[in-house]
Automatic annotation (TrEMBL), chains A, B, C, D, E, F:
Alphabetical keyword list: ATP-binding, Nucleotide-binding
Name of the protein this chain belongs to: Nitric oxide reductase NorQ protein
InterPro entries: ATPase_dyneun-rel_AAA, CbbQ/NirQ/NorQ/GpvN, CbbQ_C, P-loop_NTPase
Family listed: Belongs to the CbbQ/NirQ/NorQ/GpvN family.
Any GO molecular function: ATP hydrolysis activity
Domain CbbQ/NirQ/NorQ C-terminal: 182-265
Domain ATPase dynein-related AAA: start-end pairs: 36-169
Origin superkingdom: Bacteria
Length: 267, 267, 267, 267, 267, 267
């Protein structure tokens, strides 16, 4: 593994609490280098999972946060001007394909179509990446795998993956973990007691029931970890929850009251 | 055949299972260098067919995944800055026209009009490609042929080929193969038994009947090969099918139930 | 005639079958260097006519396929970076004006307004082309003439030439030729018998009656030549017609049946 | 007058037939360097008038055909890369302001707002042109004058000059000349007899009555000169009129019949 | 004051006829370097006022005509390529902030949001201009002040300043001056008699009553000065008024008649 | 602290009047490097608060005024051309992440999605900033913190932060301070008497009640400071209030009357 790629290796084991058989299924998919799609709501652990798998499989991981202003060149690469003329700079996808990393395109549905189409030749039997501007055809490294994340809650007529893209991926569903597991995660990550962590999870569960009834998204595991870490650093639980669980996600006074009430039920 | 073009030659015979007389018709079309349009749903084998024909005809194949952010320059070429000033870099279409490759524009309907208009002079009696920015007129190599793919399911008022483009192509229809042939393909590609392959095809056939009734597209042959390869690597068939045939194409709970039921009928 | 322009000379007499007095009228228009507009449906022979006239008049011909992503610079020229700094590269319109070619802007209505406005000073008494970026005013060569093509069927509120553009041109109407003449053309171009050619023309005539009743455009002469050349190379007429006359222009099952029936009436 | 500007001097007296007191009024406006707006339909002689005035006043004339893709830089200038780095290239407006030419912006209403706003500081008491990219403030040459043309028929909610632009100009109205004068013009420009010229003018007068009743614009003086020059070169009058007066401006069969009838009334 | 900025000093006292206490209020605002917004209709003297104040305060004045195609870089500056690499070129706002000029953004509401947001850090207690592309933070010169003009008549849902921008400015209202003062201005600027000037003002007053009843804007003081200067150079008053007061602002025949009648009432 | 970053240190203690426990909560959030979102109306002191906290924590502060024309490169950095080829220039976000500053994105909701997505990897456990164009992965400095401001009044369907962005931040609400505290602030900042300051606050309170009833926003603390500083420099209070509290925020005559009446009630 050379210098370009070594900065992307996952040096320490990321904390990941397995929920069902997702680790085994991912390993089987990787064994046939099947492109994978991780589906689930924001903040439920998709990114952590792919980091964990990269660590477990001993492969470098290149993560790209997709967005609607990203061009195909941002993924594939471009020519840069050098003292001696133009020099080709591989983009993250080309680096991954060339050196055998796992390439993780986070929130791929945000990207423009040229981004999603550019991955097609990497996701069928050919496993190639044409660098059209350079006139080179990269044959993907045997270790290369493509992973994308996808939040079904964002799906809309305007922004959805094309069927011809979707069909190129195996898919794993993710969701917020069960009460006990989520409690364990929050406690592990923030060092608050199991009791405090359990209360935080209970608040989140109430909020998740409000999704679609005035809240666009529920409270995520990530937000609970924020609340927990403030509590662990001495902030009183009511203030910590208001600051991390309520204020960030809604400005509606009724919804704030409902969520504040949920917080005071437990603290 | 020089270096630029040799990387595009199809070195090994691609597996292609002929369905009707499409191979002979394509050969006749190629004999008069007629531009060809391959029509059919995603994942039914159009790309594999053109690879097979390129191999059979002994011609290099240059494939371009079209997208709405692709410019005419991406096809035709551009000037790059070099140590000694600007240097012209042929785009894939120019390489194909100059050196006598088959140029395959995949999902051409996704491209902007400047892409589709740029191919006009290559698809009439003149068979030329004007490199306007370079002031050069490429007379196409005698071996050059243009092939485009087209998914009629995508046709819409907003995105369709212009009549003046369509009329420049002969057209071949593609569809998913018959049960027996598709079983043979899945079994050949994944090494699962004929029996398992046949069951997978049966599941696909049920899903294809749901197209237009809640599914945008049916399950493609490519997806069956994904399922088969997971099964062949030891994943249990129910999990393999959920992961490769159901989860990728729908998030609708009812549709998932219907497809899961179809899977459990056979496994 | 120098090197830049000589590649645009029409070396061999193009086959053109005159229909009425269009050749004489064009010659008169050229004698006063009147800009010309050729009107008619796609594939009826406008491009071939202008090639024939260029050959007959002994003038080089520079053809530009217009499209909505083409900029004024694509026509007029631009600065390129060279070893010794920037170098001006004439665009096709500037080459034609400077060296005395006929410049043919195909499907001009597809172009953006900056393309159509750029031709204004070349189409009035001044006959100049200002290269504003270069600060040069090209006085058109005495042999220079501008020709545009225009498909009235495409006319729409969104895309039409401005009146101030239209008024700068003399206009000639084109249409598909009469049965006998079109038969002669198809037979001449494909080497099929007069009998087969006549049948192909009859099929086209039926389809042209369907224009506006489910077909956007009829079957063009160019498509008949495709069908004929497949038949001449041994493909059975039914397959050849399906592949070149029916499949390319419609995916509607009823329309396909109607056209297939027309084909089997004659073959 | 140096080399840059001398190519813009009007060397020969352009033929211009004065209609009323427009020449004297323009001279008075020029004497106070008032910016001028020439209003009138397409092809009625606005461009010829400004050429004539430039000749009469002995000032160079720089004409710019405005369009919606023109940028402020196209008018003002830009940096170009040279062997020794960047070099500033004055745009046509900067050349005119610096060297004292009349700058004529043809069809200014087509331009984007940055074009029209860029002329503001040149059209008030300051008479300056800031080259913001160069950090230079050009104080206009005493001879500089700005002239714009404006076709009221094009006015629409979407495209109109801003009031703050309009108020910076004195305005002269133009229209097609009276029968006698227009006959004199057509005869002078084409060398056809007064009789033939008079007939052509009569045809135009009929068509102009149809403006707004199926025709967007009437037949302009420029079109009559086209017709006359074809007749003068031996084309029969009916064909010449069809080709230059009827076919270019309408594809509507009824309107064509009406115009053809008008032609046969006189020839 | 160095060379870059000295070209922006107002060398001669501009003629400005004070209307109320606007000069004193502006001086107070400048004494605390409060950013100022000058509100009022087009051509009523806002630009002249700021030139006068710059002269009175002895500060250089940099004026920028805003438009919707202007980018933040046009204000702030950009890198240019030089013989020895890139060189930073301050934009007009950066020059003003660095060297202590009054920067006047004319018709700021026309600009895109990046222009208006770029001025925020210059208009609060920080008085800084971040040159993000250069990585420099300009601390505004103590003499620097920002002034913008704003025509309330242009306000629309689509184009209005954001509240967070408006709140950063003190505002002064401007309007056309009273009869006597405006007469004095017209007479002073054109050298016509007080009597003729008074008549011109009376015509303008009639037209201003038509604003909103068929006229978008009334006749401005600037237009009266145009009329006066033509009369002073010998043009008859009726022609001069038609050319400068009526024709430029309306093409509606009824409105032209009404305005022409107003003109003949006085001349 | 090196040169690049030292220019961003807050040298003098900014005046900030604490309202509730926001300082302590922010310190707790900073202690766990939680990204923070400051919510509240324009001009209520969010920017001042973050400056105060940066000073109190002894960290440099890099402020970016977000806008819809800002690209990801404006935040992250870009390659610039140098005498010896291209040179990477860190953007403000990269400088902050690399050197350990607090990065404050003001009015982040104005930015395009690529700006908001670019901050994602900096706001989860990874705390990295991928410089994709440079192929570098910045591991954020331990002192780095991200702060954004957000005006809930601007929220609309078109422009709102994505849930996946919101959930990455703890949030603090800001509003205009209570009468007594705001009086103290105005008096402190302008040196007017407590009495005058109190009157100004009373005027603002009346205007804030009109928010949503004809006023888009109320009168902010910043505007009161403008009014106070004019009064302190000798302008009469009525004129000062009209100029700074009334004219800038409304052109509606009724609303102006209402606000002028409120002013005269107190002065």
């Amino acid at each position: 593994m050379n210098d370009v790629i070594s900065q992307y290796s996952v040096k320490e084991q990321p904390y990941y609490r397995s929920v069902t058989d997702e680790v085994a299924l991912y390993e089987a998919a990787y064994s046939v280098r099947m492109p994978m799609m991780l589906k689930g709501p924001t903040g439920c652990g998709k990114t952590r999972f792919v980091e964990y798998m990269a660590w477990k499989l001993g492969k470098p991981l290149i993560t790209v946060a997709c967005n609607e202003d990203m061009t195909a060149s941002d993924l594939v690469g471009r020519f840069l001007l050098d003292a001696s003329g133009t020099r080709w700079q591989d983009g993250p996808l080309a680096i991954a394909a060339r050196h055998g990393a796992i390439c993780y395109l986070d929130e791929v549905v945000e990207a423009r179509q040229d981004t999603t189409v550019v991955i097609h030749p990497l996701t069928d039997a050919r496993r190639v990446l044409p660098l059209e501007k350079k006139g080179e055809l990269i044959q993907a490294h045997p270790d290369f795998q493509l992973v994308i994340s996808y939040n079904p809650g964002y799906q809309s007529l305007m922004k959805d993956l094309k069927q011809s893209t979707k069909q190129r991926f195996g898919a794993l569903d993710f969701n917020y973990p069960d009460h006990e597991i989520e409690t364990e995660i929050v406690s592990h990550e923030t060092r608050v007691s199991q009791d405090v962590a359990s209360k935080l999870v209970s608040i989140a569960e109430r909020a998740r029931n409000l999704k679609g009834h005035g809240l666009d998204e529920g409270i995520s595991t990530r937000m609970l970890i924020y609340a927990g870490s403030l509590i662990a650093s001495g902030v009183d639980p009511m203030s910590a929850c208001r600051m991390t669980l309520v204020r960030p996600i809604t400005d509606d006074p009724d919804m704030r009251d409902a969520l504040d009430a949920a917080v005071s039920t437990f603290f």
